[in-house]
Design goal:
This protein has 6 helices and 15 strands. By secondary structure, the protein is α+β, with helices and mostly antiparallel strands.
């Protein structure tokens, strides 16, 4: 018995440190478990297939736990390239906003790979005032396969589609390279090669550009990054220019844009260009 007491006296500091370490580890495990239970208890599921929802839950948990590097790694390369080019941009513009003040979340399956996420946001409240308002933030996540792994597109970004359709007009070649699909609009990336000896001009005035689906429904369009008072884009002789066109169309699996119409000014005349997709 005295040997045990002697050992304790000689190693008292080590024993205290060991007890503290074990207590800390168990407390940490308990806290993480409670945090995960809080997240799970605050998620409501609607029409969900469990096999495809794990990546969504993992992303939500990562944001809630401030594991922004992990959350950023779940995003697809397309989503990073087109929306969140850096981890710090994602953290500031999205991760912190979706993780902080964790309220109830509802996950609703829209189709095979798209999920509508409804967040309850609790803004800073002046408790001296009687009215306290909760806000809803709605987003759509799309599960995609990238290099054999499931990844997410977020921030209402659905994904990219390669097109590669072109048309020849006079001495000009107009090609739609691809489109970026969002929940409420699409962005078409277009290249125009002017092989003529004169400059040509793209008409950017209001209602001059639009898209059409197979049922002859029209959707307004605007060229991106054009000054408000500038109604033309100039494409110089023997030059290639890349432009982006936004078409205001809600995402649908039933209706697709099949034609784009815009006006081209060449040799002091205006021509309506029809581009089949």
């Amino acid at each position: 018995m005295w040997k045990i007491q002697r050992y304790i006296n000689q190693n008292r500091v080590k024993i205290i440190i060991a007890i503290f370490t074990i207590t800390f580890i168990f407390s940490l495990i308990y806290s993480i478990r409670n945090a995960n239970m809080t997240v799970e208890n605050n998620i409501k599921y609607s029409n969900i297939e469990i096999e495809n929802i794990k990546i969504v839950e993992e992303f939500i948990h990562a944001c809630y736990s401030n594991e922004f590097e992990k959350a950023y790694g779940i995003l697809s390369n397309d989503c990073k390239d087109n929306i969140f080019q850096t981890e710090s941009k994602f953290e500031e513009e999205y991760g912190k906003k979706s993780g902080i003040n964790f309220g109830k979340k509802e996950i609703e399956r829209l189709d095979e790979d798209k999920y509508k996420i409804t967040y309850e946001i609790f803004p800073e409240v002046d408790y001296n005032k009687e009215n306290k308002r909760e806000e809803l933030f709605i987003d759509v996540y799309t599960v995609v396969i990238e290099n054999g792994q499931k990844k997410l597109n977020i921030n209402n970004y659905i994904g990219e589609k390669q097109i590669g359709k072109s048309t020849e007009f006079m001495e000009n070649r107009i090609k739609v390279e691809n489109k970026q699909i969002y929940l409420n609009y699409e962005i078409y990336n277009i290249s125009i090669k002017n092989n003529a000896q004169e400059n040509i001009f793209l008409d950017c005035s209001k209602d001059s550009t639009y898209a059409e689906d197979r049922d002859n429904n029209n959707y307004n369009g605007e060229f991106v990054n054009i000054a408000q008072n500038n109604n033309q884009i100039q494409i110089n002789s023997n030059q290639n220019q890349n432009i982006s066109l936004i078409i205001f169309k809600d995402y649908s699996t039933q209706t697709y844009v099949e034609k784009i119409y815009f006006n081209l000014l060449a040799q002091e005349q205006q021509y309506k260009i029809e581009l089949d997709l």
